[in-house]
Design brief:
single chain, 155 residues, mainly alpha, 6 helices, globular, DNA-binding transcription factor activity, Transcriptional regulator, MarR family, HTH_MarR-typ, WH-like_DNA-bd_sf, WH_DNA-bd_sf
């Protein structure tokens, strides 16, 4: 067997594929048209009302240019609104619409539940250890990312 099957990068990519597939399947079965990135964006907007797009990208560790398309799709679905920032006329602030708030509230329990399916091959102790190690690896390598995770207000 090729050594690639035991390499971290290959296994992380495969688990990402599984994660997206499980998320998509559960959302579709529940009648929702939402991607993992759209859910992350809605969640971050909810936690950070009237956040600007660059800050939002950092909050979910996503490329700002690519996130623009995600926000466009969310706006077309009527889930978010954009307005000129009162602090910086060049920036746009993003807010959840009532429809976006309702969808996020409905989806949150489902997203929590589907996490178990993503790691269904692990028992509870293994899941806790795996998640702790994933967090450690992601945190340690954050600055190596093309789209690092940033807290609000961080540069």
């Amino acid at each position: 067997m090729s050594e690639i099957y035991q390499m971290a990068g290959h296994l992380i990519r495969r688990l990402q594929q599984i994660s997206v597939s499980v998320f998509t399947e559960h959302m579709r079965a529940a009648g929702y048209d939402l991607t993992p990135v759209q859910f992350a964006a809605l969640s971050a907007i909810d936690a950070n009302p009237e956040v600007d797009q660059v800050t939002l990208a950092g909050l979910i560790a996503y490329d700002p240019v690519t996130l623009s398309g995600v926000i466009d799709r969310l706006q077309k679905k009527g889930l978010v609104s954009r307005a000129v920032s009162p602090r910086d006329r060049r920036a746009r602030v993003i807010a959840l619409t009532p429809k976006g708030e309702k969808l996020l509230t409905a989806c949150q329990p489902l997203v929590r539940e589907l996490q178990m399916d993503i790691l269904s091959g692990l028992d509870p102790d293994e899941r806790a250890t795996f998640l702790r190690l994933l967090d450690k690896a992601a945190s340690t390598g954050n600055e190596q990312s093309r789209a690092p995770l940033r807290s609000r207000g961080a540069g």
